[in-house]
């Protein structure tokens, strides 16, 4: 991957095909995401990738306005990365070989279903999170699923701690920033009878020692943990 990155960067440098009109926007993006480069050559290469991505986004959004797509794209912190780099970075899903794949009991519900349902409209979904360089998608996936369940059952939407799952579920087979699976996180939550909130156990993006109740949540709870009801 490093080699292909160097290649991309050198190609970027050789072509040096950046648009000066975009200088200000590049600086703004660069500052917003606190980008650090080892060398000016790297910055130039990243700039070219960023311009290509920006053009791809703009063309896509133009097509959306013409009814050719149903969704829009936006620039984010990965705008200076190639598709290959992003696809090559670890996401973290490691399906356990002994996973119980039996379906749940079928429950008959005699009710009319809506044509469509958006969980965002139902206020069951919190904001988008960033996992950073840690292969912790499984922990985020588990925490997000529990948030929706907590909101449905208890009526409160709270951000639950992926870091808590990252640090405390290795006992159940997960491997911190090297990957894991949602069921392992759920086993921890069941045994622990709850999960910390993001506020009390914030995300660091590194595997750390398991700790609990770093700082209690002000408001209602007796402990800093959210009890799943
Ligand atoms: C981008 O950010 C880096 C690190 O802060 C800085 O060294 C560089 O000069 C910035 N580039 C621009 C064009 O602002
Ligand atoms: C994305 O680009 C940054 C430099 O802006 C680099 O540090 C990072 O490693 C790249 N990400 C991936 C997944 O390669
Ligand atoms: C479902 O409910 C409707 C009205 O409440 C009823 O008429 C119908 O017989 C029910 N169907 C089944 C399969 O139970």
TrEMBL record:
<feature type="domain" description="Cathepsin propeptide inhibitor">
    <location>
        <begin position="26"/>
        <end position="86"/>
    </location>
</feature>
<dbReference type="InterPro" id="IPR013128">
    <property type="entry name" value="Peptidase_C1A"/>
</dbReference>
<dbReference type="Pfam" id="PF00112">
    <property type="entry name" value="Peptidase_C1"/>
</dbReference>
<dbReference type="InterPro" id="IPR013201">
    <property type="entry name" value="Prot_inhib_I29"/>
</dbReference>
<dbReference type="Pfam" id="PF08246">
    <property type="entry name" value="Inhibitor_I29"/>
</dbReference>
<feature type="domain" description="Peptidase C1A papain C-terminal">
    <location>
        <begin position="113"/>
        <end position="229"/>
    </location>
</feature>
<dbReference type="InterPro" id="IPR039417">
    <property type="entry name" value="Peptidase_C1A_papain-like"/>
</dbReference>
<dbReference type="InterPro" id="IPR000668">
    <property type="entry name" value="Peptidase_C1A_C"/>
</dbReference>
<comment type="similarity">
    <text>Belongs to the peptidase C1 family.</text>
</comment>
<feature type="signal peptide">
    <location>
        <begin position="1"/>
        <end position="16"/>
    </location>
</feature>
<dbReference type="GO" id="GO:0008234">
    <property type="term" value="F:cysteine-type peptidase activity"/>
</dbReference>
<dbReference type="InterPro" id="IPR038765">
    <property type="entry name" value="Papain-like_cys_pep_sf"/>
</dbReference>
<keyword id="KW-0732">Signal</keyword>
<dbReference type="GO" id="GO:0006508">
    <property type="term" value="P:proteolysis"/>
</dbReference>
<protein>
    <recommendedName>
        <fullName>Cathepsin S</fullName>
    </recommendedName>
</protein>
């Amino acid at each position: 991957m490093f080699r292909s990155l160097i290649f991309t960067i050198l190609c970027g440098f050789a072509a040096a095909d950046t648009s000066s009109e975009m200088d200000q926007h590049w600086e703004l993006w660069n500052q917003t995401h606190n980008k650090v480069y080892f060398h000016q050559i790297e910055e130039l290469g990243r700039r070219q990738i960023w311009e290509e991505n920006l053009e791809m986004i703009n063309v896509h959004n133009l097509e959306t306005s013409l009814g050719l797509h149903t969704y829009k794209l936006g620039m984010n912190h990965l705008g200076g990365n190639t598709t290959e780099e992003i696809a090559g970075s670890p996401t973290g899903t490691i399906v356990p070989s002994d996973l119980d794949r039996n379906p749940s009991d079928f429950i008959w519900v005699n009710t009319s279903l809506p044509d469509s349902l958006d969980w965002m409209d139902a206020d069951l979904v919190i904001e988008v999170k960033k996992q950073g360089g840690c292969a912790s998608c499984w922990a985020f996936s588990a925490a997000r699923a529990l948030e929706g369940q907590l909101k449905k059952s208890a009526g409160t939407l709270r951000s639950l701690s992926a870091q808590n799952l990252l640090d405390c579920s290795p006992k159940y087979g997960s491997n911190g920033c090297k990957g894991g699976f949602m069921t392992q996180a759920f086993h921890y939550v069941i045994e622990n009878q709850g999960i910390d909130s993001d506020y009390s156990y914030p995300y660091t993006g590194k595997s750390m020692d398991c700790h609990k109740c770093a700082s209690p949540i002000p408001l209602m709870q007796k402990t800093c943990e959210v009890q799943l009801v």
